Amino acid sequence: MATSTDRPPEEFTLRVRRYNPESGSAPYWDEHTVELEPHRSVLEAILQARDRFDGSIGIRCSCRQAICGSCGVRVNGEPALACHTHLDAAKTSSSDGVIVVEPMGNMPVIKDLIVDMDAVHWKKIERVTPWLIAKEPVPEREYLVSHDAMVDVTQTMACIQCGACVSDCLSMEVDPGFIGPAALAKAYRFVGDPRDAAQFDRLNDLAQDPDGIFDCTHCFKCVEACPKDVNPMGQIMRLRRIATADHHIVDRNNGERHEAAFTTLVRDYGLNFEAELLSRSYGGNSWFGKFKPAAAKELLSSVPVIVRGLLTGKFNPKLALLGHKISKRDLDGVRAIYDKVEGRPERLELNLYVTGSDEDQTPSHANGAARADARAADASGVEPAQAASAASVADADPDASAHQDSGVEAGDGALADEEARAPAGEEETSG
Amino acid sequence: MPAHDVLIIGAGLAGQRAALAAAQAGASVAIMSKVHPVRSHSVAAAGGINAAISVDDDWHSHAYDTVKGSDFLGDQDAIEVMCSEAPGEVMHLEHMGVTFHRNEKGELDLRAFGGASMKRTAYVADITGQALLHVLYEQLMKHHESVERYEEWFTTSLIRAENGDCCGVVAREVRSGRMEAFTAKNVILACGGAGQAYKPTTNGLIVTGDGIAMAYRAGAPLMDMEMVQYHPTTLLGSGILITEGARGEGAHLLNAEGERFMEKSAPNKMELASRDVVSRAEQIEIDEGRGVGPDGQGILLDVTVVPRRRTLEALREIVNLGKDFAGVDITREPITIRPGQHYIMGGVKTDIDGRTPIEGLYAAGEVACVSVHGGNRLGANSLLDTLIFGRRSGEHAAARAAVMPMPQADVAAARHRDERELEEIISRPREGRRVSEIKNELGELMNSNVAVFRDEAGLQAARETIERLRTEARAAWIDDRGTVFNQDVLGAVELGYMIDCAETTVVSAIERKESRGAQYRTDFPERNDEEWLKHIDVSMNGTGPQVSYSPVTITQWPPEERRY
Fold first, then answer.
1. Per-residue pLDDT at A373 exceeds 70
2. Are residues A179 and A104 in the same domain?
3. In terms of domains, do A86 and A138 share one?
4. What residues in A contact B204, CB-CB < 8 Å?
5. Dihedrals phi, psi of A266, to nearest 5 degrees
6. How confident is the model at residue A362 (pLDDT cuts 50, 70, 90)?
7. Does residue B494 contact residue B501 with C-beta atoms inside 8 Å?
8. Which of B175, B304, B491 sits opposite A362 (nearest CB)?
9. CB-CB: which of A51, A63, A360 is closest to B308?
């Protein structure tokens, strides 16, 4: 059987960000050329450079298989596990053929590629009461809970605490106090666990905290960064939906009211109505909201933001003030979506962690075919892994293949899901 | 100077479980690890944890399977303890929050595993070790007031008082480079195996035999060191582990001719025979020219026979591993694997409460040898071992601490000695060999001469080479001259630990002139109960290893021929 592991070694050059706190000098770049098979990882390249040229390159690492979470770094500017990034892919995504490796962001650098995770990541994890508060009475044997519930929380249990999502969280960059994607995903691990007794208290805590669930700006960076498909932003959105729709938690950050205003505006006008959004969020979810003192106060305090938005062309003043016009047919279409979603007896939560089904199982004879394809591809010089995966995609059901693989696709799915169902507090323009 | 009732070295499952148990018993507890606790290699355990919790199961059946799996070298009193306490421990973990997967009734689901006579492996997809480790760490965060954590502290030696008791450790704070001596009434070693003495290995880079070597140097005997487990399914190129859960879910092993060759050596259990049996069968296929891959060094693992949805849900991690590390979609095509070093059954000799012959020194988990695994460990028994004997060690050490004063030993002298030793390594001239070169040579040597099949000539050659490597290691140089996160100097210390582990392994393998469990001697191919139904112990005698024997405890299962 031919796989990409059969390809011969090639040369790869790494440009590593070095920093020695004892030297008194600024960080600098260091280049090393190593020879490895293209499917080997950036971590293996760093280890080879360390073994052969410079043992002082600092990087935390252990398992080499993306489970211990030690080797979070930035490769060509994007957060990643060094052990989970192939050299050929890293070379392709580099700007000049040299693979750039830097420490993660949003956390202080201790030495070279080693960052202080205690100072940021773990402090935030500790913020969310990260242990089960078991329901009483504790049964003699196991709690009887559904398989689906356990598979559901396994998605967040699969977080390896590598910090990749924290590294590039845009909200945290602006507001270092933000609890952040990893810790909030950890929070969902308990909120979603039917054995936990403190669902309301946890959600209320995280909704009322100005650095809590409503501090996420929905940018998808963490979804892309996560090497384990934990989908942190998706978990944050689920926390919001459970807090607002199930527990009706009205928070002092105006998250719940903002979401309600947004949802109503889209239902009534088919699109967001910017001029109404802020006043309704703060003054109550109706046309009269803007006359409430709280709304006036908020509008007034937002004037600089509005002016900046106008100057930079972030919104069109005419459309923002008068509202977007869409055809009656489209408006009916939007309302039909609302009717369908709100008409469901239970809210549907898509879990894209486990995808695929038995139906699209390749018949056993097709295995031979896939292998034969791979062999043929090998002979013809086509990259065999691609040929093999092309062969498997061809006989997969299109729905399943669309959901597979990258976190980006999973994220898109989650977005589509949310837009179709409950437009929960999108753009935090008020902040 | 820090002083604790119970000081635990290593923060994987055994260490964290010991810490929680000792704290619950009222002791002042600290846990120390050279990495952050969730990076510990327990995190990589995939398949699950064995316990006779099904209504039609019985712990005696679990115990018998374990005894048989051990090729009758396991101590049956210890196995009885482990298997009878397993159901309670698993329920305890469930109550703590482990997200075990469920059956349709909402009870813990169980999957089949190698060498087991029925389904008794509880699991969380194929990230069971990770789920357990992270849940225990949740508990350490919860109990932060009663368990002090020294995260990223590297232990360099154990300290013994004048009366011979263990009374503390010397350690280096990795981040600052500061050396510190810790006084403790009891030290529990829980710092894992020594897989990095092999190359390739499924074990993480941190698994370097630290605890085994430190105990050995302090005078504690090691036991069953010749028993090194080769896991039947590791990725051909990188040595990354593919969980036994794959075969538990029904996957087949095929040779180059497409045969399910396990029917030759294990007609009943087929792919789910014990690991030593499967690895040997694979190696025979490879050696006789029926292997696959570029050099014929591989075997095919065919997961496509498992329903796809089930694979995606229950074997998700290896679906990703296949894709990321071998470019193979295991739900669509077979993946090439081979036997690879995975676990050491041997370790620091302990009783059923984790006590070593040195007062005040305990060991639990892979670092220890109770011996519950004997000649061969069953899959999903290692997580159980760590938790049961971690807890028992913690409880016993706490009870011992309650009735004794804090030792008044001069621990500063030990600190100065280790400080000087590390300074000497850092200041070595750049001549001779690099530490990394010696480590690679050691790993390759062990993997060729002390592997699935062994013989006298290969073992003797290995012993001689290890002696040379030890001499070279004494002068080996490193690059990093700094103090902050000097991983280079720690690597040199780890190399010394691995050389001790490798040497004791080879000495024991030379000693055992029979084939049992993971030790298969082509020059002594039969099991020989009359002469060799006994443990081999190795102790440090002045400068070199000294071999002695200890009896195997047999309670209710007399040795019999092993068939799967």
1. no
2. no
3. no
4. 62-64, 68
5. -65, -35
6. very low
7. no
8. B304
9. A360
B97:A65 CB<8 A: no
Q: Same domain, yes or no, for A22 and A68? A: yes
**B242: alpha, beta or left, given left = phi > 0 and alpha = psi -120 to 50?**
beta
> Token pair of B337, please?
């694997």
Q: Does residue B174 belong to the interface with chain A, where contact is any CB pair within 8 Å?
A: no
Among the listed residues B13, B27, B14, the one whose alpha carbon sits nearest the alpha carbon of residue B148: B27
CB contact under 8 A, B39 and A68: yes
Q: Kindly state whether residues B106 and B207 are assigned to the same domain.
A: yes
Neighbours of B420 (CB within 10 A): 11
- Residue after which a domain boundary falls, among A211, A246, A281: A246
Of the residues B17, B120, B275, B415, only one is catalytic, namely B275
Please say whether the dihedral angle defined by the alpha carbons of residues B480, B482, B488 and B492, taken in this order, is positive or negative: positive
Please give, rounded to a whole number of angstroms, the shortest distance from the CA of A247 to a CA of chain B: 23
Q: Does A65 touch chain B (CB under 8 A)?
A: yes
Q: What is the CATH number of the domain that holds B114?
A: 3.50.50.60
| Beta carbons within 8 Å of A181's beta carbon, 6+ residues apart | A165, A166, A169, A216, A222, A232, A233, A236
Q: Are residues A122 and A242 in the same domain?
A: yes
Q: Is residue A34 part of a domain?
A: yes
Are B36 and A117 in contact (CB < 8 Å)? yes
pLDDT in tens, B127-137: 999 999 999 99
Q: Which band of pLDDT confidence, cut at 50, 70 and 90, is reported for residue A5?
A: low
Boundary residue ending a domain (B281, B306, B340)? B340
> Which of A51, A132, A366 shows the shortest C-beta gap to B97?
A132
Name residue, tokens 């040779």.
Answer: B255
CATH code assigned at B328: 3.90.700.10
SS3 label, residue B412: helix
Q: Choose the final residue of a domain: A115, A150, A179.
A: A115
A236 with A150, same domain? yes
Residues 6+ apart with CB under 8 A from B44: A63, A65, A67, A68, B129, B130, B202, B203, B204, B241
Residue with tokens 């100072």: A119
CA nearest to B365, candidates B342, B338, B341, B383 = B383
Which tokens sit at B37? Answer: 């606790």
pLDDT band with cut points at 50, 70 and 90 for residue A350: confident
Residue numbers in A near B486 (CB within 8 A): 56
User: What is the structure's pLDDT at B36?
Assistant: 98
Of A196, A183, A192, A235, nearest in space to A352 by CA = A235
Contact (CB, 8 A) for B335 and B306: no
Active site residue B275: yes
- Residue B548 resides in a domain: no
- Comparing alpha-carbon positions, the chain B residue that sits nearest to A7 is B294
| Residue range of the domain that includes B264 | 232-340
Pick the residue from chain A with its C-alpha nearest to B201.
A63
Does residue B59 sit in the same domain as residue B192? yes
* Domain CATH number, residue A100: 3.10.20.30
Give how many domains chain B has, as a whole number.
3
Counted domains in chain A: 3
Gap between the Cα atoms of A371 and B21, Å rounded: 52
**ipTM here:** 0.95
- Give mean pLDDT, residues A198-222: 97
Q: Which of B410, B430, B454 is the last residue of a domain?
A: B410
Note which residues in 172-211 of chain A have CB less than 8 A from chain B: 189-190, 193, 195
- Provide the domain limits for residue A175: 118-246
The number of CA neighbours under 13 Å toward the Cβ of B556 is: 10
Which of B101, B437, B478 is opposite residue A147, by nearest beta carbon?
B101
pTM, two decimal places? 0.91
Ramachandran angles phi, psi of B233, nearest 5°: -125, 90
| Angle in degrees, 0-180, between the axes of helices A303-311 and A293-301, rounded to the nearest 10 | 50
- In a domain, residue A277? The reply is no
Same domain, B54 and B162: yes
